[in-house]
């Protein structure tokens, strides 16, 4: 579902109001997530997971696209890093919320704790998304709660930065797609992004990994909290140092070495202390490395097609 929807979503957002599109997509994401609580069979789970990916697909590329319509190249890299850092923050609060719900609501009103977890997290997401739809901006030229002077200034900043105005209908969607697919850099970025995401796949099973330390369910969820808090701090630190030094490649290389060391320790020892230490190194390296987007160069044909 995620793969099927992401490219069409990237094309749709250029023709719709980003504030409403992203807000509705997020609200639907929360609603489908809450629907996990109704699942009673494996077939039902597959259907819900498919649609969960379908409605999740617009968010991340849509958020990056919207930011690229407002921020200059120097500003955008730092904002993307902060957006990525929100992942560590979400995992940290997810562990706390999971421990609280599973520890206190299991069996309440005849509903299993894991069902309550989906209901509560999904409901919160819907509420936040609907609120965000009213405060998110659209494009500089179409954001109604800005004055005419502010809209002109926002457009001028982008024009001054990359000599490209924010003309959202300057070319057709299919022309933009052809320009993107004809750019060899696109395929290199896809490969590098794939390798980066591959190094992070452990986070989807992280509570299960921490569970191998031998603690109970609630204690395991609580043990994930300091790990993700440390990851958040490291992400903020490397974002700051990378911004101050203007370097990205050395930061990424060193952080990936940290992640590799964590994986090696986790698989090479059975000592509880060493394994728990390794579980700090894995996300601190892999997750923080992906928070370091390269400094944007002058818009290539692929970047132009993405924004156009």
TrEMBL record:
Segments forming domain Major facilitator superfamily (MFS) profile: 1-308
Gene3D superfamilies assigned to the protein according to its UniProt record, in alphabetical order: MFS general substrate transporter like domains
Topology within the bilayer: Multi-pass membrane protein
Example of a GO MF term: transmembrane transporter activity
Record's GO cellular component terms: membrane
Subcellular compartments: Membrane
Presence of keyword Transport: yes
Keywords for this protein: Membrane, Transmembrane, Transmembrane helix, Transport
Transmembrane region(s): 20-39, 45-70, 82-102, 114-136, 186-206, 218-240, 252-278
Domain of life per record: Eukaryota
Protein name: Major facilitator superfamily (MFS) profile domain-containing protein
Species of provenance: Cryomyces minteri
